Amino acid sequence: MKGLLPCLLPDRVEAGCDEAGRGCLAGAVFAAAVILPPGFRHDELNDSKQLSEKRRYALRMVIEQEAACWAIGMASPEEIDRINILNASFLAMHRAIEKLTVAPEHLLIDGNRFTPYPDIPHTTIIKGDGKYLSIAAASILAKTWRDDYMKALDREYPQYGWKQNKGYPTLTHRRMIQQSGITPYHRKTFTLLHSQPVLPFDDL
Fold first, then answer.
1. In this structure, is residue 166 part of a structural domain?
2. What tens digit of pLDDT does each residue of 101-143 get?
3. Which of 9, 95, 146, 171 has the greatest number of CB atoms lying within 10 Å of its CB?
4. How far is CA 103 from CA 68, 94, 97, 98, 99, in A?
5. Is residue 96 part of a domain?
6. Would you call 183 exposed, middle or buried from its count of C-beta atoms within 10 A (0-12, 13-18, 19+)?
7. Contact 104/120 with Cβ under 8 angstroms?
8. pTM value > 0.85
9. Which residue range(s) make up the domain with 29?
């Protein structure tokens, strides 16, 4: 089972939360909140970054069918520019949590910081998507839902390669920003052409 733990507090209804898209130059940031049923196990469930795209989508079907509850939240590029990407990530998580149809009693948050959600205690877990099943499940939902969103935007602006790079700072993406300028979906407060590292691959 790759060593992933079922929960931190077994006597509480616990939701795992994670986000996707913080390091992108374009598009919204997405977050997911997932409550797994007691006793849930899946040998292949892991941090979404450790899985192929095909496995992520296969596991998404399992999670959406078998989770006790799950929800997706997002924060727009305009919100990212207005409140910064860290706060926008927390906002997306809050929006996912508030859409859950089962009320969680505890939140497991991937990372080391979080803006508290009203009346629900939380625990932050560094690299939690590789440690807890519910956070791993949330990472898969956030990643695949965001990928679907970027593929849809790619149909509107195909020259940026978003179907492949999902808005991350790849060489192709940077070149097209230089050649064609930015779109309404680009994050204007990000350094779009300089300073940020260029990822050495285009298929994410």
1. no
2. 999 999 999 999 999 999 999 999 999 999 999 999 999 999 9
3. 146
4. 11, 13, 9, 9, 9
5. yes
6. middle
7. yes
8. yes
9. 14-153
